[in-house]
Amino acid sequence: MRRPRFIAKQARHAKGPLGRLIAFIMARETWAENLRAIDALEIRPTDHILDIGCGHGRALGALAARAPRGCAVGADPSDLMAHIAVERNRALVKSGRAKVVVATASDLPFADATFDGAVCVHVLYFWKDLQSSFREMARVLKPGAKFALVFRSTQHAAAVRSFPSEVYRFPEFREVEAALADAGFFVAPAENEEHGANAHLLVATRRHE
Ligand SMILES: C[S@@+](CC[C@H](N)C(=O)[O-])C[C@H]1O[C@@H](n2cnc3c(N)ncnc32)[C@H](O)[C@@H]1O
After folding, report:
1. What is the CA(56)–ligand 1 centre distance, in A?
2. Which of 28, 93, 120, 181 keeps 20 to 30 A from 54, CA to CA?
């Protein structure tokens, strides 16, 4: 079924009561893919992990659980999503084990080499360009850090048909790989790629320059 444009726009930038409902539905719809990305990071107990476009913040709880002496940090440009993510993880935020900032992937309010890993699930469709966001992520990740990216590409024909192209841009798979390499990531082919029927999981490693 084709998603109406006003729903797709809420997924890009949720606002108001409808945005709250979309956040609730999204947290269920994307959960399995978030777990795939989180598993792929092989998180250590002291890790600081970034979730880019964290939305409703469901993944932050799972990230914090795997890094009991570290921190899970979400970044999202929607004030409503950031608010929901804080509400959902109130106890973790209070104890300093989770944090949420209002920010876009291309302009992150963190020092260089802050994070040991990052996830980004179903977010890149909304970026102005892949390069500036990947470069910014490379900047905030430590050399050797893993970055687990879940996205649909032009290979997912049903999704391409279902989501309005004025809101969602589905890239070519090879375009994403090339932009990651250009931004300072190493993408080992095959073993770090899973081409699911629903989405790709691509695991990149921040290169030591
Ligand atoms: C489809 S939702 C996915 C949310 C969550 N990652 C998940 O898996 O359920 C896309 C999220 O990306 C956020 N977003 C949109 N543009 C963004 C950007 N330029 N940088 C970071 N996040 C962005 C939206 O606010 C929204 O929360």
Report:
1. 9
2. 181
Pocket test for ligand 1, best of 49, 51, 76, 88 (most atoms within 8 A of CB): 76
Tokens representing 206? 């921040």
Q: Is the pLDDT of residue 194 over 70?
A: no
What phi and psi, each to the nearest 5 degrees, are found at residue 91? -65, -40
Is there an atom of ligand 1 within 6 Å of 31 CB? no
Q: How confident is the model at residue 85 (pLDDT cuts 50, 70, 90)?
A: very high
Give the global pTM. 0.96
> Considering only CA atoms, which residue is closest to atom 19 of ligand 1?
104
Q: Is the CB of 36 under 6 A from ligand 1?
A: no
Q: Measured from the CB, is residue 12 less than 6 Å from ligand 1?
A: yes
Backbone phi and psi for residue 145, each to the nearest 5 degrees, phi listed first: -70, 150
Largest CA distance in the chain: 46
Nearest CA to ligand 1 atom 3: 122
Q: Distance between CA atoms of 116 and 99, rounded to whole angstroms? A: 15
Span 90-136, pLDDT tens digits: 999 999 999 999 999 999 999 999 999 999 999 999 999 999 999 99
